[in-house]
Design a protein that fits this description.
By secondary structure, the chain is mainly beta. The chain has no helices and 13 strands.
């Protein structure tokens, strides 16, 4: 058994072409160690920051922990807040991030062998 205290996990800047609109940090909670079947991390978005449309090769679960956010697919866009849990199926194009007026944090969970493909420039 392992107990992880999120407030004790270092925030690392998460930069790259997948994000737009502001600062994003990541706190790796469960990494891709040998024998683990899941990866989990806390992602923290500054006001207006979001991911671009992307998809994963595995299902993805988001658990909203702070702030107000937006999750979107090609069909819909929804507002989310702490306590909401979002499920994206493998291969479903989606994005998620903060509203313009609020920071936003969520925990994501994916399979350890999941690959991410950005589908928006």
């Amino acid at each position: 058994m392992e107990i992880i205290k999120v407030d004790q996990v270092r925030k690392e800047p998460w930069t790259g072409p997948l994000f737009t609109g502001g600062a994003v940090t990541r706190q790796t909670l469960v990494g891709p160690d040998v024998g683990r079947s899941l990866n989990a991390a806390m992602v923290n978005f500054g006001q207006g920051a979001r991911s671009k449309f992307h998809m994963h090769t595995s299902d993805q679960i988001l658990i909203v922990t702070a702030g107000k956010g937006i999750v979107a697919t090609e069909q819909e866009e929804r507002s989310v807040s702490p306590g909401d849990i979002i499920f994206f199926r493998a291969g479903e194009k989606h994005w998620h991030g903060a509203t313009k007026a609020s920071n936003f944090s969520h925990i994501y969970i994916v399979a350890s062998d999941s690959k991410t493909a950005q589908v928006e420039d």
